[in-house]
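BUG: 3D viewer hangs when loading the predicted structure for this chain

Environment: internal workstation, default settings.
Expected: structure renders.
Actual: progress bar stalls at 90%.

Input used:
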Amino acid sequence: MIQPEGINLVFHSIRAGGGMERYVLDVIEELARRGIRVRGIARKTRWPGMLPAGVELVVVPDRTPFSRLNNYLFEQKALDYCQPAWPTIGISRVVGRVDLAIVGGTHIGHLKDKGKTRWGVFDRLTVAHERGLYANAGHIVAHSARVRDEITSLYTVPAGKVSTLYPPVDTIKFNLGARASRERVRKELGIRDDQFMLLFPSNNHKLKGADLILAAMEGYGDRVVLAVAGKAPLDAPGVLNLGMRQDMPELYGAADATILASKYEAFGLVGPESILCGTPAMLASNIGAVEALRSPGLVVFERSIVSLRAAMKLLQGNSSSVAITKPSDSIVYPYSLEAHVDALLLKVAHGFH
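Structure tokens produced before the viewer hung:
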């Protein structure tokens, strides 16, 4: 495979976090490991630990006190900071030509799933930038078939311009070794042997379906504990707030199931992460990762109290399904970071000219 000397990568936040933030760090690290230089262009940067050799982080300064407006202005100016001789990957909705756009979700799809029919000013501006990104990209990678279909149908992009490439998982970090600390972590968290621990990784409880999960938990008393890993606490009975954690593999290994009941979730990386750590993932049927996962690691439910309670009952009543001993049977796509970046470089080469 022919490698470029370097790559520009544009994303508004290059720092530790969940979802796309973690994905960006992983991709940059793998590119650097291969000796490909990276210019990361962002509004905010904070690399966890030592910055890899060959990686340069460029901060585009904010121009107003308002974060949403600053994101919009960043998208208009970010490409001015690129190394012009290198191909460019656009993950933020940048205005102008990029060789590859990587899309984790669309704004129109998000609004439709929320049931929002009246768009505000920023909704319209966001969609306008999305349309520009898709129109100007050499090629587009969508993180799920659902997102691919949103791009082609809601934004009228030719199908041949968009391909599906599910996001990778760091198997060095997320693996069955996480279960070795299961008893210790449960004891530290105060989880009894007779309690069912649902792990809920969430930085947006409303979007991730907290109300539905809490409603389904009613009547269980303290037999079910919802352990919330995220920035903001969730104030409700039966909830154990863990805050932001750096030990997610150990938390996955300690849980009896991981849950997402999102209103909109383009993929949902917590699904394969949890399965790789030996713990089944309970995912609402509209979540993108459902396309790429299978039973016994995956338990699917419709976004209703009845369906979610049935899924909870299934897991609680079948102790053999709690420990996933062969994750590869449940994750049916090439989830290694190396394979993913191989595919990205081919797409970059396809779009670069």
